[in-house]
Sequence to fold (159 residues):
Amino acid sequence: MWSFLPLPLPIPPLAWIPLAIVWFGLGLASAADLIFPGAFFPVVLATCSGGLAVDPLYVDAVRVLGCGRAAVWRKVLLPGSLPSVVTGVRVGLGIAWMTLVAAEFIGVRGGYGLGYMIMSARDLQRTDMVMAGMAAIGLIGLGMEWCLKRLSQPLMRWQ
Fold:
């Protein structure tokens, strides 16, 4: 059903770095241009997949009981698709974090971000700073995953 969407999924977000720099220059605009599609499309696809995976029998049962469209969304479709949505957000967050760090490797100006710090340390042959930057990237990513997991637990009490 959703196969008509013209999604740029076969092209990884990092492949767009040269065009983002040409179109938006060095800075946050080019990084945002890379991060948004990389994070947005996994969330959209997981949400659509979760909504389509809800058993139509449940929707019919709620309608037979006299519920309207809002109740079908609130009581059946949203809870039924929520695990897929959360999974899509987790994947999208991981891709966004990876793309942000990679975009900082190449398309930054003014010395901000862990990617820029790692590249500067590489140029200065400071392996200790490179390793510290890599550890910081891993710890921040782990922290984001932990926070997202903790935030999603109250939403899906039945699991």
